[in-house]
Structure formats: C-alpha cells, structure tokens
Write a structure and sequence with these properties.
alpha/beta, Arc Repressor Mutant, subunit A, Aspartate Aminotransferase, domain 1, Aspartate Aminotransferase, domain 2, eight-stranded mixed sheet, three-stranded antiparallel sheet, 17 helices, globular, disordered C terminus
C-alpha cells in the first residue's frame, strides 16, 4: 500500500493493554499481543507502528520492552524496518503460506448481487457428498414472495407491457416508495434522486463507474463485502483498507488516510455490517459526513443489510442524513430481506449528481426488469410483515449457532449481532484460509477472513452464515469441530515464526 495507516501510541496501547497481564517476560506478552491484534485484523497489514518511545510512554513500560518486542516480531517475520519510514507490519510474501491457501480464499469472492461459490468450494474427493454450506449470506425466498407473485393479475401487468419497457430510472411508483422511506428515516429525498438498479451489485458499479479511473484509490472497510472489492478492482482502482473495531469502521484514521492517499471514494456499510454485524454509532456517521463535505470525498454507504433486524435496536439515520450537502450515495436492496432472485436494488444520489447516476444506468442496461420492480414494490409495501417473518425464522437460528459454537468450539470468539445473516468468528490460533480448506474436506464450507479483506488480513477470522435450517447448523458445527480438532493437533507442530500461522 503506497500510503500506509500510521497507528498512534495511545490507540495501540488501548488495544494491547489488557493482554499484558499474563505470566512471562513483558516484552513477550507485548509481542504476542501485537501478533494477535494483527491476526484479528485490528492492525492491518502494512500499518506503520508508533515509534518505540511513543508506544512505551502510552503503555507506561520501558522503551527497552517495546524494542525487545519489536525485535522479536522482526525475527519471526511479522515486522520489518524501513529506512526513514519506521516499523511496518509485514505484508505476506506470496510463498509464505503456499499459494493454494491464498487462492482458495479468493475463489469465495461473490459474483453478482448474491455470493456464490465454484471450484474449490465443491467437496473434495474424500469429503461427504452432502456438503453443509455456511458460506452464502443470502436467504431463500420468503413465502410472501410466492404469495405476492401469485397475486399479480393481468390487470397489474398490462400497464407495464403496454409500454416499450425501457425505463432506465425505474418505475415511478417504486422510486416514490423508496424516496418516501428515505424521507421518513431522516434523509429528505425526491423520486428524481433515486435510480432503480439490477441488484445492489449494480448499484456499486454505477457509482464506481462515474467516479473511478484506473489507479484511483478507494477507501474500504476491512473486512468488507467481497463483491464491492470485485467491482473496484474491475475498474482498476486500488482499495486501501480502513480497519474496523467492535463499533464499526475506525473514523479516527480517516482524515490521515484521506490526506495521504487522496481517495476518490469511501465505501462503508453502517447498518449490520457484512460480515461483522456492527451498527456504526451516530457520532461516527457524523464524522464521515463532515469529512465527506469538507474534503469533497464521495461516500458510498451500503444499506443492503439494513432490513434484516433481529433484535430491538434503534438504527441511526443514514450517513447522508447528517450532512445533506455532502457527496454521499446511499445504496439499498431487496435481496437480503425478501429474495436475491428479484435482482432489484436502488441508489439514492445527491441532487446535483443524480442525473449522472441515471446516465450511467442508461448506458449499462436501459433499465431493470419492470415485472421484478412491480414485485419489489408490492413486497416493500409489506416490509414490516416480512421483517417479522424473518425475525421469527433467523433469530432462533442465530442463537442456535451461537449455542453450538459455545458448546463445541468454546475457544472461538464472536459477538452476537443484532441483525444481518452471519457470525464473525475469531480463531484462537492458526490461519483461517488453511482451516477453511480443511473444513471443506470435512464437508462444510465457510468463508475465511482474508477473502473478505482488502489486504488479506483478518487471518484468524471466519464468517459463518446462520440462514440454514437448524439441522444443517447442527451438522455443520459438528463437522467444523471435527476439522478443528485435527487442525489444532497439526498446528501444534508448526513453527511459531511462520507468518501466516
């Protein structure tokens, strides 16, 4: 990464301080804590660490302790020093873990609006034929989808077929509905600001196409939705990671990253972030909106998961609501709540750029299918009913998966999300890509953290989707536990100095 993240002493001290209470030399505890923070994705690869004296002052330890910890990690291959640039968290060499493990993770990247697998995601020759798939963050169609689809009459369809069918901006009734919902949620919006898209994936593409040129920088949360990374890279842009914590994206790093990397776009998922499930606090949203306005940095906020609410939680307004003059595009979708097969989403753009979004959509496909848009409108009119249905279906599955993990894989850690479709789990040791490959051989597919990361970070993280029936979750966790037993035993014999282990 050309323009690195630079960690401050006080923030890094906050990350590490609780880990410095064990047995053994303090410098070893500090080195282990740093390594674990990198593994969890809290310190992205390529980050410049604070000078030894600054970190020692923040931790209230001697400078010699920090020097010894840094030296140990340099010897083990985790850190490197660059003349005049300080101490960096190493980015892995291609051969450090073997190309197979890295390539396997990349093959989990999504294609289109839903996330699909191919190739190594299929069972190995010695794997069970009935693979349990915990990798796809999508739901089957709601029964209400079938009901609404069956209820459409010739009279409903006739006004559509009487038209030539090219409506690039989308059905007016659907745009009115979406605009009214934005307005009701605190973001005043006119129908002319809304463009209907063929899924959320196209929404990301429309914004990227009008803003990005080859070589441009895009700030992206890490981890993030892998389909967004696909889009940005397809346009030749260079994603730069912004780390997340338990509350979402770290806004304390944003201004420095903006100054250093001169980004053309910032992509962020503030509602039930995929994959961590976090809800970005209102004060952080306000910071993003202010930086967007003052720095004229376009922001694409992805609210595709916003409707999958499992617990009683007050969602703050969209980021764009905090500063109407900021260049913020807001993305929505029907895929995560209703059914991805409709392929209907939308982009709400600022008034002064909405015409440009429409122009890009017109070039892309002259408009999304009208019958799907009609179905989407009818379903959005019953949104609260479907949300109640999904909550009754998904919340027990989420809780069941959490209980299974606590019982069978108690070393794994996670935070129970209030919405979304997945748990973001942290392994106590090892490498998630290697483990995901082994899990596939045991007949269960999961997504390793590096497949969802800009910089192949989050190397001890896995995304487990809980959208499957409880019987599948039972069997999936049974197989994961079996795979973990074998993996843990094997990892005990591996050298601690190996970068990706």
């Amino acid at each position: 990464m050309d323009e690195p993240i630079r960690e401050s002493g006080p923030h890094l001290a906050d990350l590490l301080r609780d880990a410095l209470t064990g047995d053994g030399p303090l410098y070893r505890q500090l080195a282990d804590a740093l390594r674990q923070a990198v593994d969890r994705g809290e310190i992205p690869l390529g980050t410049v660490l604070p000078p030894e004296r600054a970190l020692a002052r923040a931790l209230a330890v001697s400078r010699a302790t920090v020097v010894a910890a840094y030296d140990r990690l340099k010897t083990d291959g985790w850190l490197e020093s660059r003349q005049g640039s300080g101490t960096w968290v190493r980015t892995p060499d291609e051969g450090d873990a073997g190309s197979d493990a890295v390539a396997t993770g990349r093959l989990f990247l999504s294609v289109g609006g839903g996330e699909q697998r191919s190739g190594p995601g299929e069972p190995a020759d010695d794997a069970p034929a009935d693979v349990v798939d915990l990798s796809v963050a999508a739901v089957t169609g709601s029964p209400i989808v079938n009901e609404v689809l069956a209820s459409l009459t010739p009279e409903d369809i006739a006004p559509l077929t009487a038209h030539h069918g090219y409506v690039p901006q989308g059905l007016r009734a659907l745009r009115d509905h979406v605009a009214q919902r934005f307005t009701d949620d605190g973001l005043p919006t006119g129908a002319e600001q809304v463009v209907v898209t063929t899924g959320a994936h196209q929404g990301i593409s429309l914004v990227a196409r009008q803003l990005l040129r080859p070589g441009d920088t895009v700030l992206v949360e890490s981890p993030t939705f892998p389909g967004a990374l696909d889009v940005f890279r397809r346009f030749g842009a260079r994603p730069v990671p912004v780390p997340v914590d338990e509350h979402g994206v770290r806004v304390d790093l944003l201004e420095d990253l903006i100054v250093r990397s001169d980004p053309r776009l910032f992509y962020v998922s503030p509602h039930f972030h995929n994959p961590t499930g976090t809800v970005l606090p209102a004060e952080r949203r306000a910071v993003i909106a202010e930086l967007s306005r003052t720095r004229r940095l376009p922001v694409l906020e992805d609210l595709a998961m916003a409707d999958v609410v499992l617990d009683d939680v007050d969602l703050p307004p969209a980021i764009a609501a905090y500063d109407p003059d900021a260049p913020i595009h807001t993305l929505g979708s029907t895929a995560k709540l209703f059914w991805a097969g409709m392929r209907v989403g939308w982009v709400r753009s600022p008034a002064d750029t909405a015409a440009r979004t429409l122009a890009v959509k017109t070039v892309a496909d002259l408009g999304s299918p009208l019958v799907s848009q009609l179905l989407a409108l009818r379903l959005l009119e019953r949104r609260e009913e479907v949300q109640a249905e999904r909550r009754a279906e998904l919340r027990p599955r989420r809780d069941h998966l959490a209980a299974l993990l606590a019982e069978h894989l108690p070393e794994w850690s996670f935070t129970l999300p209030a919405g979304g479709l997945s748990l973001w789990c942290t392994l106590p040791r090892g490498n998630a890509e290697e483990f995901a490959e082994l899990a596939g051989r045991h007949g269960v597919t999961v997504v390793p953290g590096p497949a969802l990361s800009v910089d192949e970070g989050n190397r001890r993280a896995l995304r487990l989707v809980f959208a499957s029936p409880t019987a599948d979750l039972d069997e999936g966790v049974r197989r994961l536990a079996q795979a973990w037993t074998g993996y843990s035993a094997a990892s005990e014999h591996r050298p601690a100095s190996r970068l990706l282990v």
